[in-house]
Specification:
By secondary structure, the protein is mainly α. It contains 6 helices and no strands. Helix 2 runs antiparallel to helix 3. It is globular and about 40 Å long. The termini are close together.
Length: 129
């Protein structure tokens, strides 16, 4: 377990090349993260339209703002505020689930079954740790 890790707390640090969420998603590749980082209203509009259709919910361009999962201050898109995986990672003081002593817990496994690319990211991190 990575102890003593301070979550990122400012927008400048959030703009690093690759930010990996607790669950293994790559925040820095997310269109909401990119639109926020680039302050791109056209991209916010495009993403809002796309995700509204894809997920069957009404997403407005002003809702498409996110500074990334591991950042504590600032806007987060959709589910991040209630995400149990994110909450657990902060409690255990890990950068992401790859550094957790309980890696592969039921909470994480349920998510990784739906998102195999996130599993690949976490597995790669575990190999290099």
């Amino acid at each position: 377990m990575l102890v003593g890790v301070d979550p990122l707390s400012d927008k400048e640090t959030a703009s690093m090349d690759q930010m990996v969420a607790m669950c293994g998603l790559i925040c820095s590749g997310c269109p909401a993260f990119l639109a926020t980082n680039n302050d791109d209203d056209d991209e916010r509009k495009r993403v809002a339209e796309l995700w509204s259709k894809e997920y069957g919910v009404d997403i407005k361009p002003e809702d498409v703002n996110c500074v990334g999962c591991i950042v504590t201050d600032g806007p987060h898109i959709g589910h991040c505020g209630q995400c149990e995986i994110r909450k657990c990672g902060f409690e255990k003081q890990v950068l992401n689930c790859a550094g957790c002593d309980d890696y592969g817990c039921a909470k994480l496994e349920k998510f990784l079954e739906m998102v195999p690319a996130a599993r690949e990211t976490l597995e790669e991190i575990r190999k290099t740790a």
